[in-house]
Design a protein that fits this description.
- The complex is a heterodimer of chains A (about 500) and B (about 500).
- Chain A is α/β, with parallel strands linked by helices and about 500 residues long.
- Chain A is about 30% helix and about 20% strand.
- In chain A, a hairpin with a 2-residue loop joins β9 (about 145-150) and β10 (about 155).
- Chain A starts with a helix and ends with a helix.
- Mean pLDDT of chain A is about 90; it is low at about 1-20.
- Chain B is an alpha/beta fold.
- In chain B, α1 (about 1-30) crosses α5, α3 (about 65-90) runs antiparallel to α4 and α3 (about 65-90) packs parallel to α6.
- The two termini of chain B are about 55 Å apart.
- Classes of the chains: A alpha/beta (about 500), B alpha/beta (about 500).
- At the A-B interface, loops of A face α11 and α12 of B.
Amino acid sequence: MIASRRQFLSAAVVGLTPKTERSITGGFIDDGHDPGHRLRDHAAFPAAKQTIKIPLLIVGGGIAGLSAAWWLDKHGFRDFVLLEMLEQAGGNARWGENEITPYPWAAHYVPVPGRKAALVRELFEELGVLRDGVWEERHLCFSPQERLYLHGRWQEGIEPVTAATARDREDFASFFDRVREFRATGEFTIPMELGARPSPLDRVSMAQWLEHEHFTSPYLHWYINYACRDDYGALAADTSAWAGIHYFASREPEEKGPLTWPEGNGWIVRRLLTKLGRYVQTGAMVHRIITQGRKLRVSAGAADYIADTVIFAAPSFLTSYVCESARPVHGIVYSPWLTANLTLDRLPREHDIETAWDNVIYDSPALGYVVATHQSLRTHIDRTVWTFYWALAQGSPADNRRLLLEKNWSYWKEAILSDLERAHPDIRQCVSRIDVLRLGHAMARPVPGFLGSQERRGLTESSGNLLFANSDLSGFSIFEEAQYRAVKAAERALRRLQGTAVQHRDRLVR
Amino acid sequence: MPVVLFLSVALIAACGLIYELVAGTLASYLLGDSVFQFSTVIGSYLFAMGVGSYLSRFIVRGLVARFISIELMVGLVGGFSSAALFLAFAYTQGFQLILYAIVLVIGILVGLEIPLLMRILKHRLEFRELVAHVLTFDYLGALGASLLFPILLVPKLGMVRSALLFGIINAGVALWSTYLFRDQLGARTWLRVACMVVLAVLGAGMAGAERITQAADNNLYADEVIFARDTRYQRIVLTKWKDDVRLFLSSHLQFSSRDEYRYHEALVHPGLASLPGARRVLVLGGGDGLAVREILKYPNVDSVTLVDLDPEMTRLFSTHPYLVTLNQHSLTDARVHVINADAFPWLQQTSEPFDFIVVDFPDPTNYSLGKLYTTAFYRLMARHLSAQGLAVVQSTSPLFARQSYWCIAETLKQARLKTYPYHLYVPSFGEWGFVLAGPNTYEPPMRLPERLRYLSVAAIPQLFQFPNDMLPVDAEPNRLNDQVLVRYYEHDWREISH
């Protein structure tokens, strides 16, 4: 933009372009907090125009809801509807797309599943990601996978090595020795339910455990803190040591992964939707669930559903606002997050090493960025989209949720650019657009004591006609747990429905 | 006062020597035979200085004004001498004529300087003092210049800008002289204006020189740059040294016109000559059209598809008069289809089968290029091979990058292809390697196209023999998610350069 003729002319004469910051567009993305808060505040919703009878209803169109639908459809059960609050299904795995590339809005990878994650393997075989026991190369994260900006330069890998002391290296080595021991116990599995046992590790925080084990390396502390923020949206001091260790001990170290796609886990959602789209109703927010005889009346938008069984795959805390009969869920803590997608018209200058898939800045409050075009087969890429991740882990979740709502887009834009500017001084000349997604309740947080929590167990074992299926039942939000919880709920729902069908038939026969 | 005066003596002496060095160095750069070039340049320069000294006797009046004019002329001619010589070499046949003309002009002008200056100063100092001081500073300046030139100027500024910088110093001395000798000078204003104009012209030259020097003075390119362009994808540079034209893509040598026939004959014929029924050929990379030139020697081939990323590259090799002579107009042949696309996605979206595929990509110097050497890429390539088809892959050097070479062979094997590695000697590259790969057993050809300069039927089986220092070594296959090749390649070349 030319501010004035004079400015333009003087610039032309001197041969310099005026050094003004280029304009960056963007805004907030619909995160469903408006209807969500109407729910919380018990606002009035319009009365239903129609009533639909249905044996089974799934609430929530994230990975949990879609996985329940996947499993039911696969087992020949087709008499159900899935209701999603937003206009786009996917939940934490939803995605966006612009003229450059598709990109993720939140969850962006699945670690290569181990033998125990049978359901994940089953799905990936169906999607052609796993063929005859071999992972399709194109879906595995390309080289180079990760890099860390530390002491003014980029290094390969996220484990800090630049200027590491002998003490740092010893601490890392003995930490990974401990991880190997924990892995060997068989207690740290994915899905977690298959191995988890009551553990003293659940009584302390990860930070306390590190201190107790005399790990002093600041690099190791940063690294573990980063892992907790990245997977749980929490500081090590707010994470159960059992969960902190689970992050490391549950993965097979030798697998070269993870599995990832330009739109992140949105790739899986897209494929699930092509199969299951006919069950899915978007823009349908469930605002009330009440018991009606042996059935449940579910009000969503202009329709009331009379369902035999409901699989509640949305975050479990929402039942407090939706179900009259349900006890409020207090025990599960949710971490607030912010993600942003940055459109880059040109790439920042790189000096040390090539851009990786996951790019982390040491000592940043945020988590770094992931490059959406990393999985492209092209050799030449001059525009891209970066997904910036920021778990607001410092301070209380409630305060941070308030901050998310209070601050305007310019505030977050500035915060994001200032953070990136440390590693990319020319970032402001590269970015043309920043879209920001605020997730007040992004994921369950495995705080100390979560493993032994009665409330969590209660939700897991619910056996009435309202079955819980969200990943928060496992205490942390990962693809594998969402899918596992959903399939478990779907199995129970099907048993229940077939049971009533059998009873019904028996009665007829008599 | 005298010290300041003598400083200007040292400066003009330095300028004079710099121009001499620039001329000598450029002549050796561009023509070779540095002993001859330096001897003749220094000889004619000294001779011209003698002529200048002799001519000084004809200058009688207005000594200071004349001296200043001469300074300005030296500044202009000397300052632009380097740029003029580069251009003369690129665009004219008479480089040597212009070289010696410039050397003579500068020599004469520089030869005038010291006698005139001594005459200007003769009233201020005793003759004994004058001669001693002027000559002392003259030689000191020369020493300074001769040290600065190789240590600082050529590596930091380059030839073109070094000459221009000293042109500016000459003009600066001229301007300064209008103040130093103001008492001996009549019309000062016009001389000062002239100084300013010359300074401005040289300054502008300095700013504009950037573009020429970037390419020409990059010490990678020892030879003269005859073409340089930054495209969206790479920097294309062509250099010429006598009859040797070299192509560099982003600083990596692609071919030398002196021996490229070895490379391209060996790339194409061992495979294609063994497929007498081959009709459809695909070339990935190779926008220079040299592989295509070899392919077009087969009358049985009725279509050649060339996929190269950079449209500038294929356009250059379709139009540049010298380059189309080199590739024999291969890219504009009716049988050839040029497609400008990124090879991996292009291959993915086409279903066409080919009888022969030439894979001639730049070396795997980074993870982006490394994608084109992965099991995923070769599996996709194999799906485009006809039942009897063959592919040949440019595979770096089995001698200098031994593990990289065998890694590429191993990667092709992982794509379930039979592999036939071979190598040859290309003087400008050293030992170079290719890998033939296909679903079937390969038999070396019994016939070759006529009039090949390097290959013969009898020589082909020898290409497949590897001496001890190039024998296979263990290497992991290169995968998209674990690009070992880029690390091998970096390691291999680091070993060589240490």
